[in-house]
Amino acid sequence: MRYLCLIYNSADRDGTLTRAEGHQLVAAHFRFDEELRADGTMIHADALQPPETATVLRVRDNQLQATDGPYAETKEHLAGFYVIEAPDDEAAKEIAARIPSVCFGAVEVRPVRLLTLPE
User: Fold this and answer.
1) What phi-psi label fits residue 69: left (phi over 0), alpha (psi between -120 and 50 degrees) or beta?
2) Is the pLDDT assigned to residue 3 strictly greater than 70?
3) Among 79, 66, 60, which residue's Cα sits nearest to residue 109?
4) Is residue 106 a contact partner of residue 58, using CB atoms and an 8 Å limit?
5) pLDDT tens-place string over residues 49-88
6) Cα(101)–Cα(96) distance, rounded to whole angstroms?
7) Which residues pair with 107 in a beta bridge?
8) Which residue from 8, 66, 79, 116 has the fewest beta carbons nearer than 10 Å?
9) Can you tell me the distance from the alpha carbon of 69 to that of 56, in angstroms, rounded to the nearest whole number?
10) CA 90 to CA 97: how far, in whole Å?
């Protein structure tokens, strides 16, 4: 059985780490990832681009509505996900707009962020 672990950050804390603290955090994630890989626990892990890079899509009365940011109505909750490969944001939005659940809820499209450390 697989599980998705969603990591939520507080907006109050975003951008408050120093560069060194940010590097320490990324290094700690890399060490943790390696531990999980070594014992066969981790299947895949990635960080996400900032929330302002997301787009929320809805289809109502056969009309696609797109809203910048992840700010779906508070009554909504995360109900599932797809991991897709797309050449750019527009192609990703086109694919996501065809997900059947977009007619009943919302689909958030957010680029995956690659973490690196300076050498």
Assistant:
1) left
2) no
3) 66
4) yes
5) 877 788 889 999 999 999 887 665 545 556 566 778 889 9
6) 10
7) 57
8) 8
9) 7
10) 10
- Can you read off the two tokens belonging to residue 78? 């995360």
pLDDT in tens, 11-61: 667 778 899 988 988 888 899 889 888 988 787 777 778 777 888 899 999
* The model's pTM: 0.64
Q: List CB contacts of 68: < 8 A, sequence separation 6 or more.
A: 52, 54, 55
